[in-house]
Structures are given as structure tokens and as C-alpha cells.
Amino acid sequence: MALSITHTPVYCTDLDEALAFYTQRLGFEVHDDVPMGPEMRWLTVHAPGDTHDLLLAAVDHHIPPADRQAMREIVAKGDLAIFIQVDDLDKTFELLRAAGTEILQEPIDQPYGVRDAAVRDPSGNHLRLSQPLPTKGLRFRSPPRLVRSRSRARHPVIVCGRAERNPEALRPPAR
Asked: Do 143 and 116 belong to one domain?
């Protein structure tokens, strides 16, 4: 059975403001913008060439009335993170900063192989922008693999990413 994820909801407090942000500032393209009655709208965007859509979902239209205030608060606090990979993080970040986007974290190289930064969209959603770091000839294994430990430990050693380039990381601690 083939499975794929087609849509990820991004809850918004103002659809037109969200649409402008995701298309004009981040470069997403409108996939669908379909009125669904007097109040609701099916609005999706995607990165050029990508088939996975972000559904820009209005809190006031997609959430039951009893839960709307709670959802507005969750969105405003940035509790629902959205992860977006870009081809030039520093350039994208500076363009967003120049446009007045709220900054949560400056670009930084992370130990798990990406350079990332964090900003907020107009509704308050926390966006994690990332760019893979060059591996400089290192091989990162995905998913992690099990290896035999040199000790008689009962627990396997899980190797992922950076541990493979440091054989010392695989040796058990001296007793």
C-alpha cells in the first residue's frame, strides 16, 4: 500500500495576510484557492516543484466555535512549528528580517547537520527554516544502525550521523 502525506494544516488568523507572507516572502505558489460557501475557503500553497501542500486554514472556519479562542492562543504562542527547507538560509533569513518578520533565532549550524533559523509568520506560527550543511565527504547514515559494542554490554550501540566519523565514540568507556 503506497502512502503519502498530501497536506499539512497551518492555522491562520487572517488568510489574506498569511497568503501574502507565504507567497511573497517565502516564494510558495498558490495551488488551490477555492471559496467554500460564504465564510470558508480551501487555500493551499506549495513550494515550486513540490507536491506537498500547506493548507492555510482559518482558525475561524476550520475549528469548532467552542475551541477557536484556545486555537488562536496556541497559534499566537507559536506552539505549532512548521519546518521548511530552503536552498540559501542566510539570504532567506535576511530578506525576512528586512521585510519586518519577527525573528526567533538567528541562523546557526546545528550538530545534526543543518543550518537553521526561526521566525514567526503573521499569525504567530513558529517557522523553522533550515538548509542542509555540506557533509565534507562524511557519510551520514539514515536511519541509525545497530553495531556491536566491544564491551559485553547488554545494550546495543546506536550509531547515527556524526558518531561514525569518530571511531572513539564507539569505544566503551574505560573502567
From this structure: no
Q: Closest Cα to residue 43, out of 18, 68, 80, 71? A: 18
Q: How many domains does the chain fold into?
A: 2
3-class SS letters over 151-174: CCCCCCEEECHHHHHCHHHHCCCC
Do 61 and 128 fall within a single domain? yes
70-126 pLDDT, tens digit each: 999 999 999 999 999 999 999 999 999 999 999 999 999 999 999 999 999 999 999
**Same domain for 140 and 57:** no
141: domain range? Answer: 136-175
- Global pTM value: 0.74
Give me the numbers of helices (H) and strands (E) for the chain, helices first please. 4, 10
Is residue 60 a part of any domain in this protein?
Answer: yes
Reported as type and span, the H/E element at residue 53 is strand 53-58
CB crowding 18-32: b at 16 or more within 10 Å, else e: bbebbeebbebeebe
